[in-house]
Amino acid sequence: MTESSPAAAVEPFLPFAQPEIGQEEIDEVVDTLRSGWLTGGPKVQAFEEGFRDVTGASHAVALSSCTAGMHLALLAAGIGPGDEVITTPLTFAATVNVILHAGATPVLADVREDDYNIDVDEIERKITPRTKALLPVHYGGQPCRMDELQALADRHKLRVIEDAAHAIGARYRGQPIGALTDAAVFSFYPIKAITTGQGGMLTTNDADLANQVRLLSLHGLSKNAWNRYSKGGSAEYQVLAPGFNYAMTDIQAALGIHQLKRLEAFQARRTHIANQYNALFAGVPELIRPPMRDEIVHAWHLYPIRLQLDRLTIDRAHFIEELRERGIGTSVHFIPIHLHPYYRKALSLGPGDFPVTEAIYEGLISLPIYPRMEDAGVERVAAAVREIAEAHRRPGR
Length: 397
Ligand SMILES: *Cc1c(COP(=O)(O)O)cnc(C)c1O
Hints:
Number of strands: 13
Oligomer: single chain
Bound molecules: pyridoxal-5'-phosphate
CATH architecture of the largest domain: 3-Layer(aba) Sandwich
CATH topology of the largest domain: Aspartate Aminotransferase, domain 2
């Protein structure tokens, strides 16, 4: 790609996201490689223990991805063909794919305009005798209204499995996300709050569910690698279910152990950046800042602005292009599920089905927010956004 804009030539490209890997992570990975235990070993156990501490959950199971964890959580909860699982249209494909992988039917319920999370009243309208579970997403790192959601689930005897990919470090009414429902599943994909390259963690207070997830993550074997290959282990095992190969490696966990130790510092930095953006965007009528409720602690995985397109002469794609010309990377979270070709066809959905999601989506732009971003970078992004908004202000307002 050639950069023709003079602005881009002067200023270095500011990427949308960047992982923060330090020397401790690197040393731990090297130590793991030298140790001989590459998977199912002590680093995975230590990472799981760290996650139990951070979330307060009694069980944590490290997995190859958040997607794998959500798939297994649904299976372990007994979700299968004929069942319906309700989730949000404003999410990543994986949230819906895992419901399909379990053989169940995804049912979407629109989000709320005031936090972009699934609307509990909309869920209630979508409940049928086949509904078995809810799969809420804590959009951008802001927890859903968990009291209302759990009360509804209790009334209708539904399981709740949280897509907590954005919510590492988030809290609801003082409680960390991870121990509030049947299960929560976190992601360590490189742009997430902490990373293991790829990876996920399921947390739960339900020992049976944790055991079943662990079993299914290791081909359905009655014994894991540690029990089979460590000193004092025994090689015999039985297959108890047709499982998957979804376990986390010790190389991934080596990264995770140190990333988790830095979570508080990372989150403080993300919060600082969000506050900085909020101040710099105060009184800019062309955009709405990310909504934030009082009773939560935000993980600030995303900082999504929402353009007020009726005040602008350009659309979101053009706005993103102008940011790119100024050397600023952005993203869009998310193209709504019901607008993708596969789900339109498979779920008989289409434009107009989720008006709140669509109205939010039209103007959504996720701005860079990550620990190593400096204050000057935040100021540069905010100045560019304000400049573009001003240059394309619709006259007569
Ligand atoms: C990143 C993400 C996932 C997938 O996580 P993986 O660890 O990559 O499988 C699922 N849901 C949401 C909302 C995400 O943003």
